[in-house]
Amino acid sequence: xxxxxxYNQGIRMVEQRLASxxxxxxxxxxxxxxxxxxxDSEIAQDVLDYDDVIDDETADIEQASVELISLQQPRQExxxxxxxxxxxxxDLERIGDYACDIAEVAQTLAASAYFKxxxxxxxxxxxxxxxxxxxxxxxxxxxxAIAYEVMKRDDAVDALYLQLYQELITVMRAQxxxxxxxxxxxxxxxxxxxxxxxxxxxxxxxxxMSDGVRQPFRRSPRxxxxxxxxxxxx
Length: 234
Prior knowledge:
Number of helices: 7
Oligomer: single chain
Structural class: mainly alpha
Order of helices and strands: HHHHHHH
Number of strands: 0
Largest sheet: none
Distance between the termini: 23 Å
Helix content: over 70%
């Protein structure tokens, strides 16, 4: 009984630390977007200073997951949680890295007023942030329906990225004095597009955790009213 208690506590601890890591990464992304919108170098530096904390926590969760897998012979359902956690923490770490990249751009662009009010970049940031939050919710409640919702949201982010790419390239060609700003904002748009992709990865692992279906989003597109694939073996 004591062994099972320690085993169950270990599984729950991994889940709790994964939730805390996600909260921290979401906060980093929020602050990096704020630093960009407000052209606030101090907020951007706060984001950069927190990166090592994310890296250390990622390594600790990975170590705890590996130890449970190798030493405790987890049940099939728990094994899916642990292997998914190993993938998810890496996606979260990359999202944190991109938040730092955005903060670095914010510092670079803080000295001069933007050539126009930022509208689409913050909108894209909010879309990507919502995807990360919803993917986190899907993980916490192991809800495949929410995971598929995250996947569908990715199209809007991709479309907005293409729009921003075209607009900013046009600015750089027509107004060379704004090349630095436009190229920096284009980098931010690219980082946000990649963050959305990592949110999709997290959502995909949610489906694996709950249903045992591997790579569900790489199957042929399903109709909007279709149900998720049938669960795999428990």
